[in-house]
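Standup, Tuesday
Yesterday: got the pipeline producing structure tokens again.
Today: sanity-check two examples.
Blockers: none.

Example 1:
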Amino acid sequence: MNAIILFLNLGTSEIVLILFVVMLLFGANKIPELAKGLGKGMREFKDATNGIQREIQDSARKMEQEAKKITQDATKDITDDPGKQ
């Protein structure tokens, strides 16, 4: 959070003003609901990102296993019948 505030170069007065405007627009009762919804959205995004990353890693592992099997089969074929070369 601090990195975001530093990046935007916001001071204390600007943050207080933003919070005041949010309170005026949404009211004190809606802010917890908005924060909860934002948290759920962030969690879903993180889960989706992790799921995609897992799928990519699984695909890479499968490709490595297939390549290793092909290499082993080719090596076996060469050693079984050296006259085929």
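Example 2:
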Amino acid sequence: MPTIFIIGPYRFFFYAGDRDEPHHVHVERDDKVAKFWIDPIRLQNSGGFNRFELKQIHSIMTENQDALMEAWNEYFSR
């Protein structure tokens, strides 16, 4: 599970087996794991996060969208 970055309490990562899906990221905090598509940024699965946290995560992703896409492309182009 390659970790892209950790911001605050949130770990942004993807699974090595995610190659055949559209670009996305999983976001983890404690026992919660949400899934977001990267381009365009949209929630796929809330994973137990409340609306406030999902909005925070969305904001973090918006600020770091290029880095998320770059990490995905770099990892899966190997």
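Quick observation on example 2: The chain has two helices and five strands. The longest helix spans residues 51-63.
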